[in-house]
Design brief:
mainly alpha, 127 residues
């Protein structure tokens, strides 16, 4: 799974280079949000599959420190310039067609992990 998150970080970092003064921080924040939402989407899927309410096991006093730990972990892992160079060299020979496919997969994955819990929440409360 770290390969997936490494690739997402690299692509977001490369996207932010010309648009943001601190692409490492920007990429780390986006990656942290995707990781946190992935965990939350997994919890929502477990709740749906097993028809259990797991909200008693998590609340803001657990979720906020978890997100902070994820952000700190990502900053430590990705903030060094040598790490970026390693990631760039790892995917240096990527074909443009593969790059587009993987970029689309990243966008669709991010949309899924953000929208799925929202749709489930709306459906459970309105229907």
């Amino acid at each position: 799974m770290t390969n997936v998150f490494d690739y997402i970080y690299l692509r977001v970092h490369n996207f932010a280079i010309g648009r943001d003064g601190t692409p490492a921080s920007y990429a780390s924040g986006i990656l942290s949000a995707i990781q946190a939402m992935t965990v939350y989407t997994t919890v929502v899927c477990i709740e749906l599959i097993f028809s259990k309410d797991l909200s008693m096991y998590y609340d803001n006093t657990i979720l906020i420190p978890f997100v902070i730990v994820v952000i700190v972990f990502n900053l430590i892992r990705y903030f060094s310039p040598s790490r970026i160079e390693k990631l760039k060299s790892k995917w240096a020979d990527e074909k443009p067609k593969d790059k587009r496919k993987r970029g689309l997969a990243i966008v669709l994955f991010a949309m899924f992990v953000i929208l799925f819990p929202v749709i489930v929440g709306i459906a459970e409360n309105n229907f």
